[in-house]
Amino acid sequence: MKAFFILDTLANAGTEKSYLQLLPQFSEDLEVFVVYFYADHSLLSDFQNKGIKTCYLGINGKYGFYHGTKRLVKLIKEEKPDVLVSSLMRSNLISRMAAFISGVPLIGTLVNDSYNPIRLKEFKGTGYWKFKFFWLLDKWTSSIPKYWIANAKCLITSHSKSLGIDSAKADVVYRGRKLTEKKYNCYQTIHHFVGCGRLISRKGWTELLDAFHLVLQKNANCTLTIFGEGPLRSSLEEKITKLGLADKVFLPGNVAEVQEKLFDYDCFVFPSWYEGFSGALLEAMMVGIPIIASDIPMNLEAITPDKNALTFPVKDAEMLAKQMTYAINNPQKMAEMGQNAREEAIERFDIEKIAKAYERVLRRVLNLT
Asked: Taking the C-alpha atoms of 360, 362, 368 and 369 in order, what is their torsion angle to the nearest 10 degrees?
């Protein structure tokens, strides 16, 4: 069996990093081929080091759907895959056209809450109509995939509404991560908070800065570090300066093995407005670091409030500050929740278990076609 996994790029982002962990876990008789279109090769060497075959189709510009489809169909004819799996908007649209032309079955993936009402409010003017146009394209072509794999149950529900997807033709396979052998033991005090993710608005970093500013009023020895890179950097830097936090908040950018960095901190904060099933949150659970996360449905499929994490209403900086302050004042309770989160992650999200579940879906879909 040969499967094409089709992506926009090999950027250092959630879906790409998840495949980097997932694909090497498949059975030896399942040949994997990663295909991508656009020139971000950030994780190329990582894929190659794991022995994953890759093919860059070299599409210039932001879209290039015609050339992308033409080159993908040519590659399909040459390599003769048994099944295609696509992720993310541009590669989804190209893959659907290529699947329609070639007749090779396509499995679509639901990896983000693309049509969340909060996201719709982000667009103004021509950006709004561009967003609606691609939503329409997505909906028109959503009947082409033979099946769907979602990384959270709530994504099946939301896409059934937004795209008309038949929920009976979708399975949930959560993201997985490899268990860390290293044990987290920084439970004596909570002073150093950490987050990680792309520096974009929907990750909630602006609210986190507001919350942290409130926390510092009574806890002056605290720090906040946010790992990641993105277009919001300059705005965050301006806000850090405006709030007088330059010696308390740090933005180191992208770093290798960010999960290992979590062992150097006391509490992981994840304030996203909407997500898919977050790999960053999952990595924090695997480490066992205490967690504070927004109460969005995707997060609540991984964590249970007050059992293995603290939660707060999305975009509510004041409540986030209260939860951060609670963590500072109750390190032992946070330690217990961190350990509970690790145990939950080991039981449900170990990468070997997830790979077997994912592979079962691939083989079942192929047998149905």
From this structure: -170
